[in-house]
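Below is how a single chain appears once it has passed through the pipeline. First comes the sequence as given, then the structure the pipeline wrote out for it. We keep one example in the README because the format questions we get most often are answered faster by looking than by reading.
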Amino acid sequence: MKARDLWQLVRGGNALMAGIGVLAGIVLGFDGPLSTSAWLAPLAAILITGFGNVLNDLGDIAIDRVAHPTRPLPREAVTLRQARALAVVLLVLGLLAAATAGLTTFVFAVAVAVLLVWYEAALKATGLPGNLAVALLTGSTFLFGAVAAGASSASIIAPACLAGMAFFANLGRELLKDLEDARADAGARRTFPMQAGRRATFVAVHVACVLGAAVSAPIVVTFWQTLPAGLLLLAADAMVLVAPFLARSDVRTGQTALKVAMATALLAVAVGLAHSVANGMASSQAC
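Resulting structure:
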C-alpha cells in the first residue's frame, strides 16, 4: 500500500478543499476574539471528509470496477480490511479534533458523520435525496467554520451565502456525475437521471446552477469593495452559470467547471482577507 494510493482513496484534494471551506467560514464568521482551539475545525473537516470518501469507495467497489477501475480498491492496491481500518481511524481523529474545537463544533461534526453513514447505508440508492445529502454536506463546511468561530447572527450571513452557493453548485455536479455513471449504476441504484431522463436532468442542473449564482449575490456586492475579490467571485458565478451548457457537450467538463468555480470562490475569500489584513497594517503604520 503506497501513500499515493491512500491519498487517492481519501481523495486528498477533495478533503483539503473541505478544510479550506471551513477555514473560509472561520475567517468570514468571527466577529470577536477567536479561541486557539477553533483552528482545529479545518483539520476535523479534512479527516471526516476523508472518512466519508473511504466509506463511499467501500460501498461503491462493485460499481467502480466498471466506472472507475483505476481507483485503489478496484485494482486491489488497498485491501478492504485496510480501507475499513483507515475509515475508523479518520472518523475517531476527526471527532476528537472537533471536540477539542468546542462542544457545538463536536455536535456539528457528529451530525455530519451520521449523515455520511446514512447516505452510504440508504440515501445513495434513492437518487435525488442522496444528491441533496451530498450537496448539504459540501455546503456545510462553511457553516462548520462559522460555528467554530462563534459567529453571530450578523457575521454568519457571508458564510451562509457561500454555503448556499456550494450547496446548489454541488447539487448540479452530483446530478452530472450520476448522468455520467448511468450505465455503471444500472441495477445498483435508481439515480435521478434514470428516473427522470437526460433532458430533465439538464433542466435540474440549470436550475441548481442559477440558484447557486443567485444566492451568492449578497457577498458579490460585499466583496466588490475589494475589486480583485469581487471579480473572482463574479468569475466563479459565471462558471457556475456556464457549467450546464458545457455539460451538454461533455458531462465531465461541466463537472470540472463547477469544481473550479468553488475553488475560485475560495480564492476570492483569500484575496479579500489579504486585502483587509494589508489595509489594517497600513492603518496601524499611519497611526
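The two ends are 57 Å apart (CA to CA).

See the next section for the split statistics.
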